[in-house]
Amino acid sequence: MTALECAAFLNAPSRDVVMNLSSRIPYVKQQLIYLLYGDRRIYQLEAKLSILTALARCKPAELPVIRVLTDQPQAFAGWPVEVIALDDATLQAWTGEGGYTHRRKACAIAQAGQWADKTVFIDTDTVFLQSPLKLFGQVDAGQYLVDEVEMRWAEASHREDYLGFSAGLARAGAVPSDDLRLCNSGVLGFTRENAGIAERAIQRIDAWTPYARELHTIEQIAFSFELQGVQINQARGVISHYFAMKQYIHAILEIFFARHGERFTPKMPGLALKVPAHRPVPSWLNRLSVKWSLTRVPPELRGVGRKLLYGSVIGRDDYQRACKVVWWRSAIEDMRHLRGLDWTQGWPAGLPRLGRRDERAFSAIARDSLKVS
Length: 373
Prior knowledge:
It comes from Pseudomonas kermanshahensis. The protein is α/β, with parallel strands linked by helices and 373 residues long.
């Protein structure tokens, strides 16, 4: 989308609209839905980057209506979206008696599913690699859309975090077949006639909450049970869902919005395409150098050593430099589980050397976490 097209799109009458759940929400053919709540600014930045990449990847006439359900509607003033303002009472009701926060997601999907022929719900920590139309093209009365299939029940049921839940299902006589596909619901697409999937998922969440309090993905599992035996498509390749590398992208988001501001301008979608969609890594030549350096590092320290060196050599641009400390903090987290690292005599034996300046910088970051003197 060009800056001129963005300017025209921004002035369209259906955009920059704030409604609430008691409003008459206009019925549309296709809608892209985001949900975010709480006052953590970083989630607002996630949503804004995702929206910008959706705008950039699609011609204005083809773009679905973008709707943001949030209790912070002022954060999206001036953005080319329709905002559905949520109040505290709604969010509390959506949490349910079991107190499961992510039940809100299923409730938002159930509510929004009534507003369009086709709905695609998408988590804020996503960026578009291709046109949003490719997602809607994978949804019809006979097929649903998910982020990706993560595993089958045969694998999940033996995981430690699933044991209590599996036992609860067994007591209830509701154990699924081993080939049940467990899906990541960072993307969920369906038609209006299939919107009942969300209400049924909510019923499952409520039934499971008493014996699944320690499992934080119950909402995803509930949708997966409802999708058993139906045709599902996966969104990967059209979007990048960076939930496993949030720290890196968050550092990048701070750079982008500090540079360009948080209010929408027509230039921003094009600029957003220059933001890395994945965790930045050093150049191939530097990665080769790191690999060579690690041959002299004890095997048990190579994972930590790689992160230390990546943080030291990364830095072709501001986005990469923003991730320098993130690489090092990841190394620190790994170090917590290592025994025998002696910091009393300076830099521990076995760890790759970083150079005096970087070692001082790393030690300053690690001091509190690892009790580095």
